[in-house]
Amino acid sequence: MKKIIEWIGEIEHGKLDIRDNIKWDILVVLRNTLANMRIQIVEEAKKYIGYTSIKYQDPMSWMDEQWFDCSWFVTHILDKFWLAKEEIRHANEYFDSYGIPIHKEVIQPWDLIFFSRDWLIPKHIGIVISSDEYIHAPGKLDTKVEIKKIADELIEKNTPWKIYTQNPIWFKRIVFESPDNAFDINGTNRKRRKKIV
Q1: How far, in Å, CA of 168 to CA of 154, rounded?
Q2: Which of 69, 90, 93, 123 could form an S-S bond across to 56 if both were Cys, CB 3.0 to 4.6 Å?
Q3: What is the pTM of this model?
Q4: In the chain, where the domains are located
């Protein structure tokens, strides 16, 4: 009670701006909500372990809950949480236009993991489920949705056009775009607060 009285006194004397506390409260709630959402996404993805995996053919093929190529699996899981974008359907499109790049050292559950099968462009995607595992639909005949260890593997192709030499090639974090001025309580319009991760 004493702390509350001191806090009210600081607000009344202009030593503490209540708007700062409101901002922090909003950010704490968002952080806790995102942590819970990460757990839910991982649990949802795990429900599909053992489902049939197929090779990618085109953007509209095989969009069914019974079998998945790698990008359709990711899209399907993200769509259950209203995070999928309709215009994205291939691993390369996720790589180019979804999320923000992050380093392996800071990955968290629900981050996206990318691989190159041809040393030139991203051709495979999965969902990180822990600091050392990911879940994916291998996208090959006679395979199933599975969990694998994140392990560095050399890409064994020798060509002057090689861009990637090792898998995984990258990780990306899913972000939310907040509306303009969503956190502009002080009227300063700080653009750097547009992305919430």
Answers
A1: 9
A2: 69
A3: 0.75
A4: 2-196
